[in-house]
Amino acid sequence: MNVFTLKIIALISMMIDHYGVIFHSGVDIYRIIGRIAFPIYCFLLVEGYLHTKNIKNYAKRLFIFALISEVAFDLAFYGEIEFTHQNVFFTLLIGLGTMYLLDNPEKYNIKPGYISFFSFMLAIILSVDYNFIGIIYILAFYYTRNLPKTIRLSRVALILFIINLLTMSIKQQFALLSLPIIYLYNGELGPKNKILQFLFYAAYPLHLIIYYLFKTI
């Protein structure tokens, strides 16, 4: 299973999740299926960070689509523009910056022990999707990146289980279903070009605005 396949699975899972939230809020099966998406995106973010040739361009893409997606996110979930909850691109952007700073603390004269704390606080202040829990998900994959696959995912599973138990609803434990899928990852990219890259980014705001339009018909 390559990066392309993981992206397809995460995208479909996310779209099902959002469909359930917007059109069938009382039906749990949509949310359960949707729990698969975010851990896969966190894993892919770490993989992307470890292999990118230009961290600035990577961050720029996330930031641009975070801004573009915010209107669609607000309309789809709240029916209006509001500032109490920011979309998941902001979560991923904070996670990317956190990993970069953890790898380069001396460049910015920041003590490593403070970096994660400030990232958690930023996620809370901005009220990004998944809040500081999202940053913990990302860091779980980041800190275990050099371990053998089985040990790595076992530790990630333990971290996710504990943090879900302490801070999230019981449905969030279904996020662990993403780990057997990630285990099948073979380290290959699969099909990749600028058009596909753009489409995977654009799919987030596009499906949300389409859901919003159908909801208002």
Description of the structure:
- It is a single chain.
- The chain has one domain.
- 73% of the residues lie in helices and 0% in strands.
- The protein has ten helices and no strands.
- The protein has helices at residues 3-23, 28-34, 37-51, 55-78, 88-103, 112-126, 131-143, 149-167, 178-183, 194-216.
| Number of structural units classed as domains | 1
The secondary-structure element order is HHHHHHHHHH
Oligomer state equals single chain
Q: Report the total helices.
A: 10
Question: What ranges have pLDDT less than 50 throughout 5 or more consecutive residues?
Answer: none
* Distance between the first and last residues' Cα: 39 Å
Approximate helicity band: over 70%
Structural class: mainly alpha
What does the main sheet amount to? none
Mean pLDDT: 95
What labels describe this entry?
globular, 217 residues, 10 helices, mainly alpha
Topology, please?
Elements: H1 3-23, H2 28-34, H3 37-51, H4 55-78, H5 88-103, H6 112-126, H7 131-143, H8 149-167, H9 178-183, H10 194-216
Helix pairs in contact: 1-2, 1-3, 1-10, 3-5, 3-7, 4-5, 4-10, 5-6, 5-7, 6-7, 7-8
